[in-house]
Amino acid sequence: MRRLFPVTPVTDQTAGPGSDGADREWSLAELAAAYAYPEPAGGSGAWLRANMVSTLDGAAQHDGRSQPISSAADMRVFGTLRALADVVVAGAETVRQEGYRPARSRAEFAELRRAAGQRPAPAIAVVSASLELDFSLPLFTSPLVPTLVLTGAAAAPDRMAAAEKAGARVVIAGDGVGVDPARAVDALVALGHTRLLTEGGPRLLGQFVTAGVLDELCLTVSPMLTAGDAQRIAGGPSVEVPRRFALASLLEEEGFLFGRYRRD
Ligand SMILES: NC(=O)c1ccc[n+]([C@@H]2O[C@H](COP(=O)([O-])OP(=O)(O)OC[C@H]3O[C@@H](n4cnc5c(N)ncnc54)[C@H](OP(=O)(O)O)[C@@H]3O)[C@@H](O)[C@H]2O)c1
After folding, report:
1. How far apart are the C-alpha atoms of 242 and 207, rounded to whole Å?
2. To test ligand 1's pocket by mutation, which of 94, 170, 219 has the most ligand atoms within 8 angstroms of CB?
3. Measured in angstroms, how far is the CA atom of residue 91 from the centroid of ligand 1?
């Protein structure tokens, strides 16, 4: 891993083999420092970050999964971002397709989480209107931290009851069957979660973008081309005016680029 941006005396390769600019294996602690959430600044103090991977031609999946377009370094960043988060928000289709399991507690991050006042692992929050989820899965029955199910007030009561019976906590964040993305953020903050991470998928991320509540995008650009008609990282109705984000940092490993973009 090496840092390409910002270029500073520490990232400059000529600063020596231990510098950020030299290609070397980064420890998880270094990655965690590079991706630290900003200090709470006014308002709710919440920060919504998305983590997504895309191919060069914009595909967000191959054969219905993101794993074929990912890499070992991408998975290290993925794990680090989870380890920094209070809660991981995912659309139900991603949960179904990627076979989500509960987030685990990792010894490497235990002290960091304890010092930040966080539980040993982030909660997973599944966004669903249909509640067509298999509530017998470990994601719902045996997480370290109860899984949240974000849905609308008009969602099927029997499915809500099934979620709660399995051990999940149902959180209402919309008046109809669906979730209002801004209300979802507010509901998570009300539960004490401020370091928010969404792992998509594209249909959910598109709604956070159009609602104007996305603060940061961590984007892995995978050096692959797939053609075809895969979804791109954000879908759904387009915004009226393109949202401008600013590059905060850019890391590279084996041709994979790890950008961090913040709302401008
Ligand atoms: N490249 C990447 O980084 C990345 C990341 C994540 C996923 N993916 C890929 O993306 C694909 C899945 O993504 P997707 O975009 O099709 O689906 P998604 O966003 O993961 O999930 C869509 C589902 O989420 C629920 N949902 C979304 N918005 C909602 C709202 N406002 N209110 C209530 N429920 C809402 C609905 O669930 P119900 O149907 O239950 O109502 C909807 O069908 C998979 O192939 C996955 O591998 C790629």
Report:
1. 14
2. 94
3. 4
Give the nearest ligand 1 atom to 93 CA. Answer: 21
Torsion angle defined by CA atoms of residues 157, 159, 162 and 164, in that order, rounded to the nearest 10 degrees: -70
Over the chain, what is the mean pLDDT? 95
Note the pLDDT of residue 229.
96
Q: Is the CB of 61 under 6 A from ligand 1?
A: yes
CATH number at residue 226: 3.40.430.10
Q: Does residue 102 lie within any of the structural domains? A: yes
Q: Whose CA is nearest to atom 31 of ligand 1?
A: 179
Q: How many domains does the chain have?
A: 1
Element (H, E) at 48: strand 47-55
Q: Which atom of ligand 1 is nearest to the CA of 181?
A: 31
- Can you tell me the distance from the alpha carbon of 223 to that of 231, in angstroms, rounded to the nearest whole number? 17
Summarised one tens digit per residue, pLDDT across range 107-126 is 999 999 999 999 999 999 99
The verdict on residue 195 lying in a domain is: yes
Q: Is the CB of 204 under 6 A from ligand 1?
A: yes
Please answer whether residues 230 and 15 qualify as being in contact, where contact means their C-beta atoms are separated by less than 8 angstroms.
no
| Parent domain of 215 | 45-239+251-263
Q: How far is the CA of 98 from the centre of ligand 1 (A)?
A: 10
Residue 117 lies in a domain: yes
* pTM of the shown model: 0.96
CA–centroid distance, residue 126 to ligand 1 (Å): 9
Closest by Cα among 93, 104, 75, 102 to 133: 93
Residue 186: inside a domain, yes or no? yes
